[in-house]
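Work Package 3 (structural annotation) set out to generate three-dimensional models for the target panel prioritized at the project kickoff. During this period the team completed the workflow that converts sequence records into discrete structure tokens, so that structures can be stored uniformly alongside our sequence database. As a representative example, we reproduce one entry of 178 residues exactly as it appears in the project archive.
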Amino acid sequence: MDRLIARWAPLALAVLLVVPVAATGQQAARGIGIVNLQIIMTQTPGYQEALATFEAEFKPASDDLEAMAERRDSLLEEYQRTEVVLTPTARQEKQTEIQQLQTRIDQRVQDLQNRQAERERELVEPLELRVQAVIEGLRAERNLGIIFDAASMPGIAAVDPSLDLTQIVVQRLQQSQN
């Protein structure tokens, strides 16, 4: 899930950039804010449940892959131990068996990664939309021109704590669940 948060952070920053429209007669937004999307996501109501669901759904497949990898490793170890006494034909058969098992493992890994990515989107997207709505509401309420994700900006050495809106966002998300 951390990978998803990292993928979403730059998109959130782009979505939160606001260009004031002077032609509407509105006062231009002046301030900036900082949030930590990683903290917000992990404290968003429903996130821990989504994470538990994700892990439970994919544990059997992960366990199966682990068992296949252990079988491959034991076959490889056995092959390396007995290679010198095997006939060329038996050696080739063992190599083929190991290679076929590795191919099946690779295919299952790719399939599992694809299924995980899709399921992750299904579980987390509704949470992301809620977070985005709260952040956008806070931005508008405080007349901020931009809100940065501190987690995706490693160059920041220090920030005025009054600019950090992370806990306010978390509180509003938690209040909206009650």
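The radius of gyration is 25 Å.
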